[in-house]
Amino acid sequence: MYINVQQNDGIISTGGYAENKIVHNAADSGKQLDWNKLEQELHALSSSSDASVKQFALEAEKAVEAKNMGNVKACLSKWLPCIGRLIETSYYILEIADKFGCV
After folding, report:
1. Which stretches of the chain drop beneath a pLDDT of 70?
2. SS3 for 30-95, per residue?
3. What is the model's pTM?
4. Which of 19, 39, 66, 93 has a Cα at 20 to 30 A from 31?
5. Contact at 8 Å (CB) between 44 and 26?
């Protein structure tokens, strides 16, 4: 049995053969993001020759400048299915997307 806990408000007893995992959601705390690093990666993407990558970078930069976690997550959710392969070199963006569950 494998249990993935998104939030734990108490004690969970699952028996001796269970594998338990507590997941901390990055959306709960902006302190877990390196805003400067994220902004630098987006700035680098804005010079891409691909119009979709440029549009993603523009939208994401606005959310990052405002340090708005919800908008960052919304932008990643919207764009990554379309351009995920094009930003494979932006590991920090993909790491943040993974924390949000967008990847």
Report:
1. 1-31, 84-89, 103
2. HHHCCHHHHHHHHHHHCCCCCHHHHHHHHHHHHHHHCCCHHHHHHHHHHHHHHHHHHHCCCHHHHH
3. 0.61
4. 19
5. no
